[in-house]
Each structure stands twice: as structure tokens, then as C-alpha cells.
Amino acid sequence: MFDTMTLTKIVGGICGTFLIFLFANWGAETIYSMGGGGHGDEHAQAYVIDTGEDESGAAEEEVVEVAFADVLATADAGKGERVFGKCKACHKLDGSNGTGPHLDGVVDRDIAAVGDFSYSDALTGLEGAWDAEALNGFLTNPKDYAPGTKMSFAGLKKIEDRANLVAYLATVQ
Fold this sequence. Notes:
Elements: H1 4-32, H2 68-73, H3 77-83, H4 121-124, H5 132-140, H6 142-145, H7 159-171
Helix pairs in contact: 3-7, 5-7
């Protein structure tokens, strides 16, 4: 009376029942789901307790503006050589041009002064030389310094990286 076939039917019936409940649950969630938990996109607190702090919970920090000349005075040319690794894809230091003009002797050289390189109008329109301040401005964000430049590099955000790079380029003649 109780054989293997009967046991198989009972186990199959239980598994089938669970499978039906699983599909029913999935279907109900799909049909009746409200998306973000039923609260829409706006989540507002019911009340706010004033603790005396600003919204971020942290005290405001004063941003101290450091002069580039001060950072350049303590710059490390060895670290600047490592920063130059970001420039190697387009610039060379052996006197030959790549995608960009060669950078040997660039410090205090006139802007757009490499004769056999085709500069953009944005750079040929600039006056002066690549002194430390000009290089700092250009390396911060080339597209802001010379709108329309062909240089696609986004810039160096850290002032220490820019100072180290300028110190390194000053040693390359």
C-alpha cells in the first residue's frame, strides 16, 4: 500500500504546491508593486529636531588658499617626474613632437614657440611665456585657461602635483 510511487506523488504534490505559491507571490508583487516602497520619489521627515549643527553635521572648514609660488619653492622634481607619466602619451622630452609639442625647455619659453608644431588658435592667441604661474593655470584646467585648445587633458587638480611637475620640467633642458 505505501510504495515508492506513492511517496513520489506526495513529494511532487508538496513541491508543486510551493511552486504555485512562489509564482503567485511573484505575480502579485509584479502587479501590485508601488516601485520605491509605496512612498513615491519624495521622502520627507515628519519632524526635525534642531541640534544646532548645520545639515552636513560637520563644522565648516576654512579653505586656506596657498600661493603657488610657496608650494613651488618646496616642490620635489623626483615626484614631478612621476607626475609627468600622465603627459608621456602626448609629449616628449627629446626635442621631437608627438601629439603635443615637446616639453624640454618649456619653462620660461614663449607660449606656442615650437616652430614645427601646429598649435591651436587658442594658444597662438596667448601672449607671454610659460612661466611657473602660467603653467600652473594651464595645468589646472587647460580648457578653462585657453578655451578652444586642442589639448584634451582634464588637468591636474592637486596643487602639489602641478608644482612638482613644473619643478621637474624646469630641470629638463
